[in-house]
Please model this.
Amino acid sequence: MSDPKRSPAPRIWVEDGQGRRPFMRGIMIHSLMSRGAGFEEAFQAASAIRDELRNRETVGREELTKLIDRAFPDGLEERPRRAGPEIQVLSGRSQTPFSKGVLSQSLLAAAIEPDQAHEVAREIEATLIGRGLAAVDRTELRALSAEVLEQQLNPRVAGRYLAWREFLDEERPLILLLAGAAGVGKSSLAQAVAHRLGVAGVTSTDAIRQVMRIMLGPELVPAIHASSYDAHKLVTRSEAAEDPVIDAFRAQAATVSVGARAMIERAIEESSSMILDGVAILPGLVDPSAYSDGAYVVSLVVATLSEEAFEARFAKRARSAAGRPPHRYLGNLAAILRIQDHILELAEQYDVPIVDNSDFDSSVRSILRHVTETLRKERRAREGVA
Model:
């Protein structure tokens, strides 16, 4: 493993009419091999080109093509393609073929872009082929992946990757709680994060509330028979309530949180990781520390701090779901914003991190960073590392 304190090499950008992308030796090796070059000559050519560009910030596509042509004056297109041997990944007594796709999917947990994950996976494949390996132990592959992540990106990314892979070897599940007001994009974020982490269990407190509606009629618990932002229309107002919208919302959340806690406890009993999102996961109503002995619990609040972004999101939801007309949400926007303000106050009070969902992809990466950094922190605390 390389020195974690060493700074990564400066990034070189390849520019053309379509934009720019980072130059990576592993990508060039893979490309040259796909055009017929053997690994050794592809490796030497890509390394020489990288060294020649080392002090450059950018290189044009045409210039890069000329450098490749100079390295292969006889051309590459007519050469016979040389397929490398299939590499097996060993884990105990089992073995599976090495797959760049599978590896790049696992790298996404480190909160990196999909194209970065693919590029790193290709670099790792080129390294394995260059070493002439027919098989590699899973632990060795994990260490190599962390080393390439550190070299190509930075040590913190490598640390996040290792934290997630080490978590998968444990029996303790991950419980990710995403709270937030209606319309902030919690469910979409939950699905995207679940895909990157490979977590199958994804549910919402809306589903829990729907089950409770069947069991508890409106005459018994009126608050659960309306949306969070208009529950106050069904609940008898208390004279002591300062804000009927917040009072009714909290009454609804208190009831639904009982079901949420039951879902969490069931997931822990089954040692099954789960992502739970919803307005009812209020800080203070669902206490993550109550489950820390049986699971890694990460609690976050998702918010949309721009009123204009709220309006745009509601309009988009209306176009994709006939049952969600925009006027229903826009007509209650004031109440939704009041509920969001209340949730943000609770997040501040209970020290729960907030993710401003102004950009979806950035929010996904932010959530992934929170998850893996929490795993890293808790593991280091258990090991007594400062």
Confidence is low (pLDDT under 50) at residues 1-7, 78-83. The radius of gyration is 26 Å.
